[in-house]
From TrEMBL, chain A:
EC class (word): transferase
This protein's name: Glutathione S-transferase
Keywords for the protein's UniProt record, in alphabetical order: Transferase
One GO term describing the cellular component: cytosol
Annotated source species: Ailuropoda melanoleuca (Giant panda)
Keyword Transferase: yes
Gene: LOC100471068
Pfam family, one: GST_N
From TrEMBL, chain B:
Keyword Transferase: yes
Example GO molecular function: glutathione transferase activity
Gene3D superfamilies according to UniProt: 1.20.1050.10, Glutaredoxin
One Gene Ontology term, aspect cellular component: mitochondrion
Name of the protein described by the UniProt record: Glutathione S-transferase
Residues in GST C-terminal domain copies: 85-208
EC class: transferase
Known catalytic reactions: RX + glutathione = an S-substituted glutathione + a halide anion + H(+)
Protein family membership: Belongs to the GST superfamily. Alpha family.
Domain GST N-terminal stretches: 3-83
Source organism of the structure: Ailuropoda melanoleuca (Giant panda)
């Protein structure tokens, strides 16, 4: 009898958040085991559970899967969120990788030295409006469908909507010139599984605060 | 009538090298257009052939594909190098994500100032010796098979060999504690398509030098 997937990570967004979103979108209940002390972290590594001594790690279907993308690919394929053939999958992968590049900038932002933060935020805004959102607006315009690929919900839609929430947290006006992308966000947010995940009390994580950042630094022995 | 895939990138390893390796290992002939001027790059962008304005880009099977991992996944699946089921695929993904992380550290180090570059490359060797190679040595030991996944040649084997050779360029003794990886290296290097690719005159690119760094910096403005 398959138990629920178990997510091993910090109690924070980081690299695990997109995995939480995808599982939630697929309607899959999951458990979380938070790394909260250096002892937790050492135990996880010493027990040999982490292939490359890193998290995220997800226990699922008898495996201990590491590497964010490997985990996401597995979940997407298993729950039919990866397109119907290789060509759709190639489009989904292309779009998803672009989103991951922008998402990476959000993920590392909390670790940025204070004097560089403004410049980093400015770059995020520029990339959002000049490089990434125009592409997705154009894709949606080109086929006029409700989803990015193959007229069906896929991981590409979920990852994009997650990203749009982060963009809004920085500056809601960034979405102003992208009406189709905005409409996708509304549509996806209203899907029952997503609606539930977007409510308070779900396993969605808030932006990291200074206290959690300090805790993470301690766990890793960072200065 | 199938035309050859065409690769668009700078004349160097960077993010395209793993793609060259995969095509070569699969025995697929490919063409390359090397981007050597800003004008060339801007034309590709203006013509709308670079989805996010970036390279690598590959024209294949009537598609214009961007994003390194999207390209690699497509090729791995197309040439039957991606496992026989989802459980094998996820292992291949885990292993290739790890080796790609390591190789990208090397690619990015080339653009750092000398002191930082030296530090970064020392970290690459350390990570290889203490994080990545022990993991792969254990995988080979645990199943005792010739290939990393499913007793069959896959993308994971190609990329591990590529990573081993790259790290050996930084430290020739890096495999000294890893006897199974040594044997693996020999075995995979002797696969005919790979043996051919490892010969001089193939489409394999050399390590980044100051000229390559200069060209890329001037075109990408950093």
């Amino acid at each position: 009898m398959a138990g629920k997937p178990k997510l091993h990570y910090f109690n924070a967004r980081g690299r695990m958040e997109s995995i939480r979103w995808l599982l939630a979108a697929a309607g899959v209940e999951f458990e979380e085991i938070f790394i909260e002390t250096p002892e937790d972290w050492n135990k996880l590594r010493n027990d040999g559970y982490l292939l490359f001594q890193q998290v995220p790690m997800v226990e699922m279907d008898g495996m201990k899967i590491v590497q964010t993308r490997a985990i996401l690919n597995y979940i997407a394929a298993k729950y039919n969120l990866y397109g119907k053939d290789v060509k759709e999958r190639a489009l989904i992968d292309m779009y998803t990788e672009g989103m991951a590049d922008l998402n990476e900038m959000f993920i590392v932002l909390p670790l940025c030295p204070p004097d560089q933060k403004d410049a980093k935020i400015a770059l995020i805004k520029e990339r959002t409006t000049d490089r990434y959102l125009p592409v997705f607006e154009k894709v949606l315009k080109s086929h006029g469908q409700d989803y990015l690929v193959g007229n069906t919900l896929s991981r590409a839609d979920i990852h994009l909507v997650e990203l749009l929430y982060y963009v809004e947290e920085i500056d809601p006006s960034l979405l102003a010139n992208f009406p189709l992308v905005k409409a996708l966000k509304t549509r996806i947010s209203n899907l029952p599984a997503m609606k539930k995940f977007l409510q308070p009390g779900s396993q969605r994580k808030p932006p990291i605060d200074e206290k959690s950042l300090e805790q993470a630094r301690k766990i890793f022995g960072m200065k | 009538m199938a035309t050859k895939p065409k690769l668009f990138y700078f004349r160097g390893r960077g993010r395209m090298e793993s793609i060259r390796w995969l095509l070569a290992a699969a025995g697929v002939e490919f063409e390359e257009e090397f981007i050597e001027t800003t004008e060339q790059y801007e034309k590709l962008q203006k013509d709308g052939r670079l989805l996010f304005g970036q390279v690598p880009m590959i024209e294949i099977d009537g598609m214009v594909l961007a994003q390194t991992r999207a390209i690699l996944s497509y090729l791995a699946a197309k040439y039957d190098l991606y496992g026989k089921d989802l459980k094998e695929t996820v292992r291949i993904n885990m292993y290739t994500d790890g080796t790609l992380d390591l190789m990208l550290m090397i690619a990015l180090a080339a653009f750092k100032p000398p002191a930082e570059k030296e530090q970064d490359l020392a970290l690459v060797v350390k990570r290889a010796k203490t994080r990545y190679f022990p993991a792969f040595e254990k995988i080979l030991k645990d199943h005792g098979e010739d290939f990393l996944v499913g007793n069959k040649f896959s993308w994971a084997d190609i990329q591990l060999l590529e990573a081993i050779l790259m790290v050996e360029e930084l430290d020739a003794s890096v495999l000294s504690d890893f006897s199974l990886l040594k044997a693996f290296k020999t075995r995979i290097s002797n696969i005919p398509t790979i043996k051919k690719f490892l010969q001089p005159g193939s489409q394999r690119q050399p390590p980044p030098d100051s000229h390559y760094v200069k060209v890329v910096r001037s075109i990408l403005h950093f």
